[in-house]
Amino acid sequence: MELNQVNTENSELFNNFLPALNKLILSIYTDDLDTYNFIVYRQNTQDFAFFAKMNSTLLLNSAVDCFSIDNPAAKFRFTVIYKIQSLQSNIKFNIITKTNDKLALLSLQNIFPAFNWAEREIWDLMGIIFLKHPDLRRILTDYGFSGHPLRKEFPLTGFREVHYEESTKHIEYTEIELPQNYRAVKMLSRWQDLDA
Predict the structure, then answer these.
(1) CA dist., res. 69 & res. 152, Å (int)
(2) CA–CA separation, 82 vs 65, rounded Å?
(3) Burial tier of 118 (Cβ tally within 10 Å: 0-12, 13-18, 19+)
(4) Residue 194: its pLDDT value, please?
(5) Coil, strand or helix: which one is 122?
(6) With contact defined as beta carbons under 8 Å apart, do 139 and 121 qualify?
(7) Domain ranges of the chain
(8) Per-residue pLDDT, 130
(9) Taking Cα atoms as reference points, which of 61, 97, 60 lies closest to residue 80?
(10) What does the pLDDT average to over 13-22?
(11) Mind listing the pLDDT tens digit for each residue in 46-104?
């Protein structure tokens, strides 16, 4: 665990509980917004969130946001960031963890109920599975939708077109046919091939 990147004004706060968290986190650093960023092992996110909420010094009792980032070139392509905050002391934590297509994350919905919809949205749009989530189903896309539209390899046009057919009074799906070869996606940047 790296602690050298933390502001010293709150070092006494961290000295009280960091020894207990040694096995849960990889590193900790602060950003320009005085937010403490904890990079947590994937299997320990639930334990860390429970500790942060129940610790009498921290009292991180408010779920602010939860979002994910897709980096297809990385071994663990998905980064999931939970933002939590203490309403009493205004301490802000980011719980950062990484996963891939096959490894699921433990849901934090039972600790912070406000993450219920955020985790459903991440599953719907990115395909990250959250174990022990009580209601993991699509929230923004149609129930018949195939794929996860915010993944980098998902085509911008999608796979099917949806429209309402007035004559039959039903929603109809038609496959999109493109005469161009826009379906092949290269993950490398064209700028990498240029010499500096």
Answers:
(1) 10
(2) 6
(3) buried
(4) 55
(5) helix
(6) yes
(7) 2-138
(8) 94
(9) 97
(10) 72
(11) 999 999 899 888 889 999 999 999 998 889 999 999 999 999 888 899 999 999 988 99
Q: pLDDT by residue (tens digit) across 166-194? A: 998 888 877 777 665 555 556 566 555 55
Residue 178: exposed, middle, or buried by beta-carbon count in 10 A (0-12, 13-18, 19+)?
Answer: exposed
pLDDT at 116 over 70: yes
Taking residue 189's Cβ as centre, other Cβ atoms within 10 Å add up to 8
Report the C-alpha gap between 122 and 68 in whole angstroms.
7
CATH of segment(s) 2-138:
3.30.460.80
| CA–CA dist 85, 154 (Å, integer) | 34
The angle that helices 11-21 and 45-54 make with each other, rounded to 10 degrees, is 140
Contacts of 155 (CB under 8 A, 6+ apart): 182, 183, 185
Closest residue by Cα to residue 122 from 110, 105, 134, 142: 105
| Residue 34 CB neighbour total at 10 angstroms | 12
